[in-house]
Specification:
Largest sheet: 7 strands, mixed
Strand content: over 45%
Shape: globular
Distance between the termini: 40 Å
Amino acid sequence: QVQLVESGGGLVQAGGSLRLSCAASRSIFGIKAMGWYRQAPGKQRELVAVITSNTINYADSVKGRFTISRDNAKNMVNLQMNSLKPEDTAVYYCNAKGYGLDTWGQGTQVTVSS
């Protein structure tokens, strides 16, 4: 079992940057996949980026602008978000998946103004 806590959300102007962090309560070494998802009001939750021990995948809408990274030594997963757009506005959630594991953080709000 693991607990996840996101941080780094906030209000930023279009074109700006934010860095989100996800801190895990225990080692994430051995967890199959760590990911970031987001959910905008009235929309379905969608995958933003996911990282495993040897693969990374991004949603087409963020490819080239967002970067996910995993620091096993610090039990953290980060999401660097550059060139932010108003359509990036959403609650962003950290997720951990593995055998018998599917854990979510509480979410952090990202608001991008025009």
